[in-house]
Amino acid sequence: MIKGKTFKMVYxxxxxxxxxxxxxxxxxxxxxIPVPGAKLGLANIITLFAIVLYGYRSGLVVASLxxxxxxxxxxxxxxxxxxxxxxxxxxxxxxxxxxxxxYKRRKITLISVSLAGAVTFNIVQLVLASILVQNFxxxxxxLPFLLLLAVPTGIFTGMVTIYLEEIAGRVGLxxxxxx
Length: 179
Known about the structure:
Blueprint: H1 4-28, H2 43-54, H3 56-74, H4 80-104, H5 110-133, H6 137-170
């Protein structure tokens, strides 16, 4: 049986692989809403689950590697989309890491943590896109739409992560937090 650090490393590698797979599949699916840059953000389920399982550092590893490896597979490494994806993934992970402490103290749910990540992701992407194209009307024009889209996707991501957390507890995975 695999124990300790090796066990954690194997699980993190699996989480990165799942996140890359979801990222790649999601990139191949046409956006369900005609708002440029709008995505479901399903790979964030894996990032949030990594934070729940092993803490924010592991979440950052999953988010970073998912963006880097996924961009190689999608074909936009070091392109405009990569910078938006990478910066959004890392900063939304940090936002979720800040909110996870409130979750641990039972002040909020994982849905709230996920919503914080979704909103942060969209704001970061819009700010960076506005800076890169030197047009801040983008920010003002798209922000309401992307924030509105962040609500259902954030709720869905949080609900799926709650479900995964329950399953992980049932199969005996040690969660980072304890109540």
